[in-house]
Design goal:
about 60% helix; 3-stranded antiparallel β-sheet
Amino acid sequence: MKCSCEKHSEAQVHRGRTCVACEIENLQQQVTRAQFPATRMWNWMNNPENAKDLTGEQLRQRFLREFRQAT
């Protein structure tokens, strides 16, 4: 079945008349949003300056604060 979409001229429709191209775009945006905090936290963890002179609990608290800022 073919149907018009506001964003895509001829879009294949499935599952409740959802445009496949719109669904793919949405999933790509979700992946991109998930990659940002993961990359930021990976870089933070690999910087030895972030753990310098901190106890285990202080490091945990700082990590959680950084994570909240990233998300």
